[in-house]
């Protein structure tokens, strides 16, 4: 099986998360930039992702969609990058990785659309109340530099991306602990490389 990594993305999309993860892994990869909309609804692309969304990662014959899954896959397949959890880190790693993919993403998406969860419906939702989700983020990072403690992992790429984006666009409340965490992540050379590559791709259409 070929081990070539190919990222299908758009520089103005969640594909930025997968790009950052690939830069952290420091493995060779190529990029196919797609226009959003109908260009993602062709039979060829839908064979990769039936939702017609980016990003998608091809790794030889393996195909992975969904940003959290892409981050976890890369961390597992390329252990030399040391981005996967060690035994004592697994609980925090998986807990907050999937918190980001579930309650947090649902919450910030509703926030971006101006939707307020009715009080009587909060028990049915993935997150309940916006303020509690923000409290949970602080709980996850309180007293720690990264999700699992003192060490950066793939969980920081995913959860951190949501926090960075949310602070920029106003869907994450500006709390000092969250802002310090975002600044720490944005200072990483791999984050800066990925952001530069996406900015160049966006500028080129």
**Beta-strand percentage range:** 5-15%
Specify the helix fraction band.
Answer: 40-55%
Report the CATH C-level class of the largest domain. Answer: Mainly Alpha
Radius of gyration: 17 Å
Distance between the termini: 33 Å
Q: What kind of sheet is the major sheet? A: 4 strands, mixed
Please trace the helix and strand order, writing H or E for each element: EHEHEEHHHHHH
Our count of domains comes out at 2
CATH topology of the largest domain: Glutathione S-transferase Yfyf (Class Pi), Chain A, domain 2
Arithmetic mean pLDDT: 95
Structure class: alpha+beta
Gross CATH architecture of the largest domain: Up-down Bundle
Give the strand order of the largest sheet, numbering strands 1, 2, ... along the chain: 2-1-3-4
- What is the helix tally? 8
How many strand segments?
4
Shape: globular
List segments where confidence is low: pLDDT < 50 over at least 5 consecutive residues. none
Give a quick set of tags describing it.
single chain, alpha+beta, Glutaredoxin, Glutathione S-transferase Yfyf (Class Pi), Chain A, domain 2, 4-stranded mixed sheet, 50% helix, globular
What does this structure look like?
With 205 residues, the chain is of the alpha+beta class. It contains 8 helices and 4 strands; from the N terminus they run E-H-E-H-E-E-H-H-H-H-H-H. It has a 4-stranded mixed sheet, with helices on one face. A hairpin with a 2-residue loop joins strand 3 and strand 4. Helix 6 crosses helix 7. The longest helix is centred in the middle third of the chain and has 23 residues. The chain is globular, with a radius of gyration of 17 Å. The protein starts with a strand and ends with a helix.
């Amino acid at each position: 099986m070929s081990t070539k990594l190919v990222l299908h993305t758009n520089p103005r999309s969640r594909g930025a998360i997968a790009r950052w993860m690939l830069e952290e892994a420091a493995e060779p990869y190529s990029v196919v930039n797609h226009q959003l909309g109908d260009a993602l609804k062709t039979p060829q692309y839908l064979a990769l992702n039936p939702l017609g969304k980016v990003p998608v990662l091809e790794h030889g014959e393996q195909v992975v969609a969904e940003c959290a899954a892409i981050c976890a896959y890369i961390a597992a397949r390329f252990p030399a990058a040391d981005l996967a959890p060690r035994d004592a880190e697994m609980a925090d790693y998986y807990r907050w990785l999937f918190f980001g993919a579930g309650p947090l993403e649902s919450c910030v998406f509703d926030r971006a659309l101006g939707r307020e969860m009715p009080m009587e419906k909060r028990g049915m939702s993935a997150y309940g109340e916006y303020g509690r989700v923000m409290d949970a983020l602080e709980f996850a990072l309180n007293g720690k530099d990264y999700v699992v403690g003192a060490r950066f992992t793939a969980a920081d790429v995913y959860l951190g991306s949501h926090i960075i984006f949310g602070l920029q666009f106003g869907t994450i409340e500006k709390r000092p602990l969250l802002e310090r965490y975002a600044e720490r992540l944005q200072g990483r050379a791999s984050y800066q490389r990925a952001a530069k590559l996406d900015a160049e791709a966006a500028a080129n259409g």
